[in-house]
Design a protein that fits this description.
The chain is of the alpha+beta class. The chain has 8 helices and 14 strands. It has one domain: Muramoyl-pentapeptide Carboxypeptidase, domain 2, CATH 3.30.1380. Helix content is 28%, strand content 14%. Strands 8-14-12-13 form a 4-stranded mixed β-sheet. Strands 1-4-6 form a 3-stranded antiparallel β-sheet.
Length: 332
């Protein structure tokens, strides 16, 4: 009897080690199954919850990312060329899957639509150039959809800033695409898994989106949810050239800190209005968000006048050769 009991204990010990030891076939299989969802590639982790989600440790401004998922390009989703070299394409699986689902949703509504994505987090999280947040796998930058006067989607090499009337000061003939941008917002705030807590965007563009949603009779529940999370950030540039989306801490992550840690920063003269590039990144400058009331929402933009004509010989819907890269955005 003692010999039989000892043999049983030894068998259980070996089985447990096989299931929990590093580099096992079980863990590899689990990782492969997890990575097949929505075109994502997991990085591994500790246990099923980590394989499924990754782990967000600390806050968006003072944190790290363990495991998580990699955002993959697809016919309906591209990496913004200006951000492609950063390698900041990692996040918690709910965030990455939400972006993928939202891009698919926009394409279903607008055949051929392509969502352009900038930085998420680095593979291990932590400090990332040009951002005060994006450290814990819960933040992502997504470009605005841009349209021509005829409604065709335009793709730019970098984020494009827009005025309150929907025109682009750096790109004559390009317009803020109310319809596709609202479709993207609606998909993200209605996502069945990720809980969006912030969608940073300049106040006048927020007004455009909510007014458009009302005009097309979007569901009241979706409009209310969007109104709650669309906001111009305080103490940061206003985000007039892209969305910054942040999801909340998943319930099972006790080490995840919901609210950003306040960091001291140097203030300087106004350098830009919610844009990214080398100038303010090098100087470490931050411009406070404006406090004035945004102007009333104008009518939808019409076709450009002759004063907005493209240079001779240039296609109307192509970015001007002289269109400079946006100046730095300090994400909230």
């Amino acid at each position: 009897m003692p010999l039989a009991l000892a043999a049983l204990v030894a068998t259980l010990t070996v089985s447990t080690a096989a299931l929990t030891g590093p580099g096992t076939g079980h863990r590899t299989a689990d990782r492969m199954m997890s990575s097949s969802r929505a075109g994502l590639r997991g990085t591994g982790g500790l246990g099923p919850a980590t394989l499924r989600f990754g782990r967000s440790i600390g806050s968006p401004t003072e944190g790290h990312l363990v495991g998580g998922a990699h955002l993959e390009a697809a016919p309906y989703l591209r990496i913004e060329p200006a951000d492609s070299a950063s390698g900041a394409r990692w996040g918690l699986e709910p965030l990455v899957a939400m972006i993928d689902r939202a891009a698919r949703a926009v394409r279903r509504q607008f055949p051929g639509a392509v969502t352009s994505v900038g930085d998420l987090s680095r593979p291990g999280g932590g400090d990332i150039d040009r951002h005060r947040s994006h450290e814990s796998g819960r933040d992502a930058d997504i470009a605005f959809f841009v349209r021509s006067a005829t409604g065709r989607q335009l793709l730019a090499p970098h984020f494009v800033p827009f005025r309150s009337d929907g025109t682009a000061p750096s790109w004559p003939g390009a317009y803020f695409d109310d319809a596709r941008n609202w479709a993207l917002v609606a998909a993200m705030v209605s996502d069945p898994e990720a809980h969006v807590t912030h969608l940073f965007v300049a106040a006048p563009l927020r007004a455009r989106l909510l007014a458009y949603a009302e005009r097309v009779h979007a569901p009241a529940s979706v409009r209310l949810r969007a109104a709650e999370v669309l906001q111009q950030p305080h103490g940061a540039l206003p985000h007039d050239d892209h969305f910054h989306v942040r999801i909340g801490c998943p319930a099972h992550m006790s080490a995840c800190v919901e609210n950003p840690t306040v960091r001291p920063r140097r203030l300087g003269p106004v350098v830009a209005h919610g844009r990214r590039g080398a100038a303010s990144r090098a100087a470490g400058l931050v411009t406070p968000a404006p406090t004035h009331t945004p102007p009333p929402l104008p009518a939808l933009p019409r076709a450009p006048s002759s004063s907005h004509a493209s240079p001779a010989g240039a296609p109307q819907d192509a970015p001007p050769a002289s269109m400079a890269a946006p100046i730095d955005d300090v994400d909230g």
